[in-house]
Design brief:
The complex is a heterodimer. Chain A is mainly alpha-helical. Chain A has 18 helices and 4 strands. In chain A, a hairpin with a 2-residue loop joins β2 and β3. The longest helix of chain A is centred in the first third of the chain and has 27 residues. The relative contact order of chain A is 0.15. Chain B has 2 domains: 160 residues, Rossmann fold; 78 residues, no CATH class. In chain B, 34% of the residues lie in helices and 23% in strands. Chain B contains 9 helices and 10 strands. The two termini of chain B are 23 Å apart. The chains are: A mainly alpha, B alpha/beta. Chains A and B meet through α1, α9, α10, α11 and α12 of A and α2, α3 and α5 of B.
């Protein structure tokens, strides 16, 4: 009797399973395409702006995926993610500024940034992960605000609101030739100079790839399954023998450490670190939107969310300018498509996305459904 | 009072009390349980049975008194520590990981028992030992066919069975069942009762069972403990306890004819 109920139970979601399979293939296909595009970005999109976009996407995939470890896998809502991102970036920037542009400065400064992020995460975690989610969110918000005030007030170290500008190791300078041709100029491959700029991009890309693969490993590990159990039913996870506060603190520290690594990459790529680019709440909101649009609790969602949102932020205005020009003969339409109204259209896109993909793009396609 | 008093108690509570405001939900309960013994805890709604369970498995902290596992005082331990120490609990209201698969629900319990939860760089799916063990417990509870479904997609009866499968997977010394057959169909309840009988066959185990159904109590109980208004009012062999006027009155109300 029990067997039959199970069999019937299994038959119903089968048609749904077919759809999820197609959805999975779509998601993996999209991610593979994005991965390929990023891997070959310097050759496919050699202009300066595209390079900036590609590097930003690499760094933000790491940042948003590490945030997904918290919000999507464990159900922890934190607003302090840019704080950890900033610690990595400022550590690197201050070390380079004081020690000069060498790899040892990046290693030492970045290392200090990561350790600071871990210690801070441990403190916040142990002190406040026992309390209700809303209070924890408030604590992280307070910590992040304090960090922003510190960054702007301790201007001797941080450069205040202006931030810090510095140079990076010579290997990454555009004038550096990785391989020289007969004339002593940088060798070109498919028309792209093999110079320091290329080395810098691949430094960012490969570091981001390694970090992302590491996080994929974590979510598939026994620890990852405990995190999901905590998200689903904290009290039961505790009852079968998992010390919830310890696991929560552990993943909060891991996510903080990875965010700090992303901060190092951002600092090295930009040659500039300031509150606007690593600490501001605008970035925190970007992270939240990216993870929601992509799909929480999937990891792949981070990739898709970051790419969509970054492309929209960089190219929607251009697209609208083209549209406004093309429709200049029509009434009203050019006004609606005026590039200054790009935020309106961005907002509209978000509303439509959330409506049609309630669990985010990857989440909905992979059949995760809406969380209760 | 009891015929066969086995070795030293595996778990006992001493003067255990908890107050919510001025109300004593559990009041001064002293009681010891032994390996190989199945004790049914009965009492009307609000008697404090589930509260007493919550005190023993750690969801609530006592206002006074102690809980001893063997000779170890566990009164202040977190639920997870008590689970590791060998106390397993199945819950009255189904309490699963709804958006995880049936297999994953049980695998998590196996993984906890194997102390593998902190592993960061192994693939959970590759730890076949854990998965095999989880499948074994699913087979025990007749859930093999449902392994890949989400726990939330199971019918109510199967969710109750999954609850028991998770308890089995914890391999505890102390089994605590809180109305395991509540809301189950007439066909399904015997599967659970049969399982409990099989658990009982291993005499190293202590079983505590909160249950209302008289046929279940008669079929399984070695001993009955009666709680009323948070106090322990009777404790002894099923026949004796059920015959007490006090018990017939408080547990079954005025319409005591039904008992026989």
């Amino acid at each position: 009797m029990a067997q039959t109920t199970s069999a019937i139970g299994a038959a119903v979601p089968n048609s749904k399973a077919g759809r999820t399979f197609a959805g999975r293939v779509t998601v993996y296909g999209l991610v593979a395409l994005i991965g390929l595009a990023l891997a070959l970005a310097p050759f496919l999109f050699p202009d300066v702006r595209s390079q900036e976009v590609a590097a930003r996407i690499c760094v933000f995939i790491v940042l948003v995926a590490s945030y997904d470890l918290l919000i999507g896998y464990t159900g922890i809502v934190s607003f302090a993610h840019t704080m950890f991102f900033g610690l990595g970036a400022y550590g690197t920037a201050i070390a380079i500024k004081t020690m000069g542009p060498g790899f040892e400065a990046i290693l030492l400064g970045g290392g200090i940034g990561i350790v600071a992020a871990l210690v801070l995460a441990l403190l916040i975690g142990l002190l406040s992960l026992r309390v209700k989610a809303i209070f924890f969110a408030m604590v992280t918000l307070a910590a992040a605000s304090v960090m922003m005030v510190l960054a702007s007030q301790l201007s001797d170290f941080t450069g205040g609101e202006d931030g810090i500008t510095y140079s990076i190791p010579k290997l990454f300078a555009p004038a550096t030739e990785l391989l020289a041709d007969a004339d002593g100029k940088a060798l070109r491959l498919f028309g792209v100079a093999l110079n320091g700029k290329l080395a810098l991009y691949y430094f960012v890309f490969i570091s981001a790839l390694v970090l992302f693969l590491g996080m994929l490993r974590i979510v598939a590990s026994p620890l990852g399954s405990v995190l999901q159990a905590i998200r689903e039913n904290e009290m039961r996870a505790e009852a079968i023998g998992y010390r919830v506060v310890v696991y929560r603190t552990a993943i909060f520290c891991i996510a903080a450490g990875v965010a700090a690594c992303a901060g190092i990459l951002r600092a090295v790529w930009l040659k500039y670190t300031g509150p606007e680019v690593v600490l501001s709440f605008d970035i925190m909101i970007d992270i939240l939107l990216m993870v929601v649009i992509g799909g929480m609790g999937t990891m792949w969602g981070a990739v898709i969310g970051v790419v969509l949102m970054t492309l929209a932020q960089y190219y929607l205005k251009d697209l609208m300018a083209l549209g406004a020009e093309a429709s200049s003969a029509l009434p009203i339409v050019p006004d609606l498509l005026n590039p200054e109204r790009w935020l309106l259209w961005l907002g509209l896109c978000f509303i439509l996305l959330v409506y049609f993909f309630p669990a985010g793009i990857a989440g909905t396609l992979m059949g995760k459904g809406v969380r209760r | 009072m009891r015929g066969h008093m086995p070795s030293s108690p595996s778990i006992r509570t001493e003067n255990l009390s908890i107050h919510f405001g001025g109300h004593a939900a559990v009041n001064n309960v002293t009681c010891a349980f032994h390996p190989g013994e199945l004790t049914v805890i009965v009492g009307p709604n609000g008697a404090g049975k589930t509260t007493w369970f919550n005190l023993v498995s750690g969801q609530l902290r006592p206002s006074a008194g102690r809980i001893l596992l063997g000779e170890r005082d566990i009164s202040r331990l977190a639920p997870s520590e008590r689970a590791k120490a060998g106390i397993g609990r199945a819950f009255q209201l189904t309490n699963l990981f709804p958006k995880l698969s049936v297999l994953e629900n049980v695998r998590l319990a196996v993984q906890s028992r194997a102390r593998q939860g902190g592993r960061l760089f192994a693939r959970a799916a590759a730890l076949t030992g854990l998965t095999d063990k989880a499948m074994h417990y699913l087979a025990e509870t007749n859930l093999t066919g449902a392994a890949a479904l989400l726990a939330s997609a199971l019918p109510h009866g199967d969710q109750r069975k999954l609850e028991v499968a998770m308890l089995l997977a914890m391999e505890p010394d102390i089994f605590m069942f809180d109305e395991p057959t509540a809301g189950m169909s007439v066909d399904e309840a015997p599967i659970i009762l049969d399982l409990i009988a099989r658990i009982k066959a291993d005499t190293s185990r202590t079983i505590l069972l909160v249950e209302h159904k008289m046929d279940v109590v008669r079929a399984l109980a070695d001993r009955i403990v009666v709680l009323h208004n948070g106090e322990l009012v009777a404790d002894g062999d099923p026949g004796e306890v059920m015959a007490l006027d006090l018990v017939r009155e408080i547990y079954l109300g005025v319409g005591a004819e039904e008992v026989a």
